[in-house]
Design a protein that fits this description.
The complex is a heterodimer of chains A (170) and B (269).
Chain A (H helix, E strand, L loop, with lengths): L1 H18 L1 E8 L11 E8 L5 E7 L17 H6 L12 E2 L5 E8 L11 E10 L5 E10 L5 E6 L6 E7 L1
Parallel strand pairs in A: 3-4
Antiparallel strand pairs in A: 1-5, 1-9, 2-3, 2-6, 6-7, 8-9
Chain B lengths: L2 H21 L1 E6 L3 E2 L5 E9 L8 E2 L5 E4 L5 E2 L2 E5 L4 E6 L4 E18 L2 E7 L4 H4 L5 E18 L14 E5 L11 E8 L2 E2 L4 E6 L11 E4 L5 E5 L4 E11 L7 E13 L3
Parallel strand pairs in B: 2-11, 11-19
Antiparallel strand pairs in B: 1-3, 3-4, 3-8, 5-6, 5-9, 7-8, 9-10, 9-11, 12-13, 13-14, 13-17, 15-16, 15-18, 18-19
The chains are: A mainly beta (170), B mainly beta (269).
C-alpha cells in the first residue's frame, strides 16, 4: 500500500513538472526602522498594452480584527487603481496574510487557474509593495507567455522590495 | 486735498479692496479622496484664503453644505464646526462608491446709494424688498450661484452623483475626479444651466503655494461643448475654478454671477 502511494505521488510530481509552471521568488528586506509593519504586497500580470489584468496574489493583514486590514489596500495605489478597487477582500485563492522579512516562493501551474486561461502574448509581472508608516515600491518583469524554454528573469528593488525572480518552466 | 479727489481716492480704495476680496479662494479640503476598507470617515476643512490650501483668512460658511452618497441620497455631516480660520465637518461613508461634497452659496448681492452714500447688502432674494430701502437709488443687484465641490471615493468609483441639476455652473466629469494621476490627461465638461458653457476660462492652481515663489497657475478654455482637458504636471491637491457673469437671473433687472470651484487630488503614477 505504501509502495503504491509513493508510486502514485511520484507520478503526480513528474506529471506536474512536465505540465509547466511559473514560480516567483520574492525577497522582503529586513528594515531597521523604529516601527515596522510587514508590507502589503500585490502580484499581478499585465498584458503589454496594460489592458488585461490577471491577479496572482495579494498579501495583506487579513487577520486584523473586523476586516480593518482592508483600510490600507489602497496604498498599493497602482494595483488599487488597476484592479484592487473592483475586488472584494478577502478573496479565496487570491488573498493571504502578510509575510515576514525573508525569501518567499509562489508557484502557479500552467494548467491551473489563473495561468490556464492566459492567452499567448507579452506580459509584465508586476509586484507592488506598500508598508504602513513606510514607503511603496513597484517592480515589473517583462516576459513572454507561454515560455518556449526554461528561463529565470529578475528585478531588484531598492527600498521596500529586494530581489524578485520569475522562473518560467515550459 | 480737495474733496472730489478725496472721494475719488476713497472709491478707488474701495474698488481695489473688493477686487482683492474676490481674489480670495474658497475651497474644501478632504482628508482623503481614495479609500479602501469599511467603517470609513472623511474629515473636511473648508476655508476662504489667499494661499492654497492654508487656512489663514476666513472660515467657509457651511449654510449651503450638502453631501450626496453614491446612490444620490443626502448624508448628514457630523461634528460641524466653524472656527476662526476654517470650518470642519466629518462624513461617515456608508458604502462603496463616489460621494459628492458641496457648498452651495445661493444669494443676492446689491450695491445702492442712500442719501448720497454707497451701501452694500447681501441676503436672500425674498429679503430684498424689506431690507433695501425704497428710497435707495442706483441699485445694482447680482444674483450669486456659487458651487464649491470635492469628491471622495470608497472602492470602485461611481458616477451617479454627477448628474447636473441644471442650475448655475456645474462640472460634468468625463475623467472621474477620483481617478487622477500625475502625467495623465483629465477631461471635464462645464455646463451653465445644464447647457454647454463654451469659451469659459478655467483656472487651475496646484496647492502648496506657501512653499514656492510662483503661483504656477494655468488657464484653459472650454470648447463649444464646454469641454476642457488638462495634463496634471505632478501629484498633489489642485484647485480648479471658473465663473460667468450674465443677465440670466431669475430676479428682475439683476445680473447673475455663477461660479464653480473644485478641489481635486492627483496621485503619483
Amino acid at each position: 500500500m505504501r509502495l503504491l502511494l509513493t508510486a502514485a505521488m511520484s507520478t503526480l510530481a513528474a506529471g506536474s513538472a512536465l505540465a509547466g509552471e511559473a514560480s516567483i521568488s520574492i525577497d522582503i528586506p529586513r528594515l531597521n526602522v523604529a516601527e515596522y509593519h510587514r508590507p502589503y504586497v500585490a502580484f499581478w500580470l499585465e498584458s503589454e498594452d496594460g489592458g488585461k489584468i490577471t491577479n496572482l496574489a495579494v498579501w495583506y493583514d487579513v487577520k486584523h480584527k473586523d476586516g480593518e486590514g482592508t483600510k490600507w489596500l489602497k496604498d498599493m495605489r497602482t494595483w488599487w487603481r488597476r484592479t484592487g478597487r473592483e475586488l472584494t477582500m478577502p478573496t479565496d485563492g487570491l488573498s493571504s496574510p502578510t509575510r515576514p522579512p525573508g525569501t518567499h516562493e509562489l508557484t502557479f501551474k500552467s494548467a491551473a487557474a489563473p495561468l490556464a486561461a492566459l492567452p499567448a502574448g507579452n506580459y509584465n509581472l508586476v509586484v507592488e509593495a506598500a508598508r504602513e508608516v513606510g514607503g511603496r515600491e513597484l517592480l515589473r518583469i517583462p516576459f513572454q507567455w507561454p515560455p518556449k524554454a526554461p528561463a529565470t528573469l529578475d528585478a531588484k528593488g531598492d527600498s521596500e522590495l529586494g530581489a524578485i525572480a520569475l522562473k518560467l518552466t515550459p | 486735498m480737495n474733496r472730489p479727489l478725496k472721494v475719488a481716492l476713497l472709491a478707488l480704495a474701495v474698488s481695489t479692496f473688493s477686487a482683492t476680496a474676490q481674489a480670495h479662494r474658497t475651497w474644501l479640503l478632504p482628508s482623503a479622496t481614495v479609500l479602501s476598507g469599511k467603517d470609513l470617515w472623511v474629515t473636511v476643512d473648508a476655508a476662504v484664503s489667499n494661499d492654497l490650501f492654508y487656512f489663514e483668512h476666513h472660515p467657509l460658511r457651511l449654510d449651503g453644505l450638502e453631501v450626496l452618497a453614491p446612490d444620490g441620497t443626502k448624508l448628514t455631516p457630523e461634528h460641524v464646526n466653524t472656527g476662526r480660520y476654517r470650518s470642519t465637518f466629518d462624513i461617515k461613508l456608508g458604502g462603496p462608491g463616489t460621494y459628492k461634497i458641496m457648498v452651495l452659496n445661493q444669494g443676492v448681492f446689491a450695491r445702492y446709494k442712500l442719501d448720497g452714500q454707497n451701501k452694500r447688502w447681501r441676503g436672500k432674494p425674498e429679503q430684498m424688498k424689506s431690507e433695501i430701502p425704497a428710497n435707495a437709488t442706483d441699485v445694482e443687484v447680482s444674483e450669486l450661484q456659487g458651487r464649491i465641490e470635492t469628491f471622495v471615493t470608497s472602492g470602485k468609483p461611481t458616477t451617479d452623483t454627477f448628474k447636473p441639476t441644471g442650475r448655475g455652473l456645474e462640472l460634468v466629469p468625463v475623467t472621474h475626479p477620483n481617478n487622477l494621476v500625475a502625467g495623465e490627461k483629465a477631461t471635464f465638461r462645464l455646463v451653465l444651466d445644464g447647457q454647454p458653457a463654451a469659451g469659459l476660462k478655467v483656472e487651475i492652481v496646484p496647492g502648496g503655494i506657501r512653499y514656492r515663489d510662483k503661483l504656477n497657475d494655468t488657464r484653459v478654455t472650454t470648447d463649444e461643448s464646454g469641454t476642457f482637458s488638462y495634463t496634471w504636471p505632478g501629484p498633489g491637491m489642485y484647485w480648479m475654478s471658473a465663473s460667468v457673469r450674465d443677465d440670466n437671473s431669475r430676479i428682475k433687472d439683476a445680473r447673475r454671477r455663477a461660479s464653480y470651484t473644485a478641489t481635486l487630488e492627483v496621485l503619483p503614477p
